[in-house]
């Protein structure tokens, strides 16, 4: 006879010993399967191997020693290309190619171009100059959440239609349009990345990475999405699916000049530089962070309105000149950076590194690209530069500008008659969302030099071209509050009416 305690051992809650052993074996098998499956669905050196796969990491590709790694600088401009920024690009990236990398090839940069206000003739000339042109949407529309909440069909329209614009209007071969960046750095999750993956884009440059928050820690290298996006998602929605071979060039922030806060864009820092030295030191110190740690690419993302402040343009110009004076620093495009990462080559052998060679470069090669500028130069009203012919686009833009100016003058007249001019005419801000503010005192103006614009890209849609400046203002929420306060003192009945 078995004791009652023995019975309890062999029969637990109605299960026999054999049944318990069977369940235990099933659980062990399941756990082994899960471990095996996990090993094949997570990124590691065993599941992700160069050249077409890279896990998110700070380690140097190819296990090269840090002193043999070329320091890459990736300058990227977002949004429209037109007369507002053309002279900046001529100065910083001269078409004669006299600013050269150590291998003797001209420096280069990347331009993520949106459709609104873009002069595609200029875009084609930048491409002929050796710059990379990326896709940045057709509409660049507001509100920002539209991009986060968008579906695959809408994202396909934005991505593919703008790529077609660059092909047809700028004459860029479709195979040269390799990268995408979402407006406002707002990803649309799998709805966006499936479009990029299915249409043979090489990389995305949208996802933000908010580390390091200092000037001495190593920086993240570009990586692939073979196993999805496994880092912290700073701006939803990040991609969850696997996209084999699709690269992510992260938006790694730069520290502001006070070394207090990260800035996704150079021009979007909370603490803006006060003078040329502040601006230059901000760029230089961020460069040294990469150069002295793991030599990951220095990501410098910005919008051209930052350059309308003379001392900031001078600072970037001086910074670029400093870069070209160093024998192990290369200013390259994003695609060139990925080419190096796929084939890590010591700096001593870069003269023979084919993706960075420039045998076909000719000074002023863009001059041979025949096209007519879409918009007239602001110093040559009525005529397309170099053509002597007023274009249909010019006349259409003239009519739009004149209509807006007349509308604004009408608003001013009405406001003068009611005593509200200070409320309506408080800011020169268009429906596109770019804001302009003037220095409030002579001393402040002297200190800021020629800083005519205060521009925060994440709050507004796009920089306003010269031919639409001075149009009727669209009001921010703060302007609406001001109107309500004025209305309260002028017509108290209005408040009670709104309250109903």
Automatic annotation (TrEMBL):
Annotated signal peptide: 1-37
| Species of origin | Elysia crispata
Q: Which GO terms describe its biological process?
A: carbohydrate metabolic process
Quote the protein name from its UniProt record. Answer: NodB homology domain-containing protein
Q: Which keywords belong to this entry?
A: Signal
InterPro entries, per database record: CE4, Glyco_hydro/deAcase_b/a-brl
Q: Ranges of Basic and acidic residues compositional bias?
A: 400-419, 442-453
Polar residues bias located where? 426-441
Record-linked SUPFAM superfamilies: Glycoside hydrolase/deacetylase
Region annotation (Disordered) maps to: 375-463
**Keyword match Transferase:** no
Q: Where is the composition biased (Basic residues)?
A: 454-463
Q: Which domain of life is it from?
A: Eukaryota
């Amino acid at each position: 006879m078995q004791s009652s305690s023995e019975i309890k051992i062999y029969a637990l809650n109605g299960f026999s010993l054999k049944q318990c052993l069977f369940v235990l074996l099933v659980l062990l098998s399941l756990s082994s399967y899960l471990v095996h499956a996990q090993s094949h669905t997570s990124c590691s050196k065993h599941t992700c191997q160069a050249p077409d796969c890279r896990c998110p990491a700070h380690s140097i590709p190819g296990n090269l020693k840090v002193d043999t790694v070329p320091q890459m600088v990736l300058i990227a401009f977002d949004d429209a290309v037109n007369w507002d920024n053309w002279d900046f690009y001529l100065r910083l990236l001269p078409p004669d190619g006299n600013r050269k990398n150590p291998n003797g090839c001209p420096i280069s940069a990347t331009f993520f171009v949106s459709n609104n206000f873009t002069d595609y003739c200029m875009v084609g000339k930048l491409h002929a100059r050796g710059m990379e042109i990326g896709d940045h949407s057709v509409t660049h529309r507001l509100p920002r959440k539209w991009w986060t909440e968008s579906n695959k069909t809408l994202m396909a329209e934005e991505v593919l239609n703008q790529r077609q614009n660059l092909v047809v209007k700028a004459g860029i071969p479709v195979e040269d349009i390799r990268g995408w960046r979402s407006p406002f750095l707002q990803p649309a999750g799998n709805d966006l990345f499936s479009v990029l993956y299915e249409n043979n884009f090489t990389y995305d440059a949208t996802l933000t990475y908010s580390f390091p928050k200092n000037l001495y820690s190593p920086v993240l290298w570009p990586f692939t999405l073979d196993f999805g996006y496994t880092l912290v998602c700073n701006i939803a929605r990040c991609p969850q699916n696997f996209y084999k071979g699709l690269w992510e060039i992260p938006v790694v922030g730069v520290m502001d000049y006070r070394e207090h806060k990260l800035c996704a864009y150079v021009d979007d820092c909370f603490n803006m530089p006060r003078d040329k030295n502040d601006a230059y030191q901000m760029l230089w110190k961020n460069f040294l962070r990469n150069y002295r740690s793991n030599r990951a690419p220095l990501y410098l993302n910005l919008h051209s309105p930052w350059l309308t402040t003379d001392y900031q343009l001078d600072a970037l110009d001086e910074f670029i000149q400093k870069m070209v004076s160093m024998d192990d620093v290369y200013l390259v495009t994003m695609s060139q950076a990925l080419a190096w990462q796929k084939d890590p080559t010591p700096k001593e052998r870069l003269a023979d590194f084919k993706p960075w060679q420039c045998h076909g470069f000719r000074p002023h090669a863009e001059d041979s690209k025949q096209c007519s500028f879409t918009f007239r130069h602001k110093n040559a009203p009525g005529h397309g530069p170099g053509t002597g012919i007023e274009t249909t686009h010019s006349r259409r833009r003239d009519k739009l500008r004149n209509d807006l100016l007349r509308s604004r003058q009408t608003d001013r007249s009405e406001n003068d008659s009611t005593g509200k001019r200070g409320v309506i005419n408080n800011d020169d801000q268009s429906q596109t969302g770019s804001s302009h503010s003037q220095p409030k005192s002579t001393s402040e103006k002297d200190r800021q030099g020629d800083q005519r614009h205060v521009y925060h890209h994440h709050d507004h849609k796009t920089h306003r071209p010269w031919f639409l400046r001075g149009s009727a203002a669209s009001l921010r929420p703060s302007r609406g509050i001001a109107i309500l306060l004025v209305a309260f003192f002028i017509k108290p009945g209005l408040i009670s009416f709104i309250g109903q």
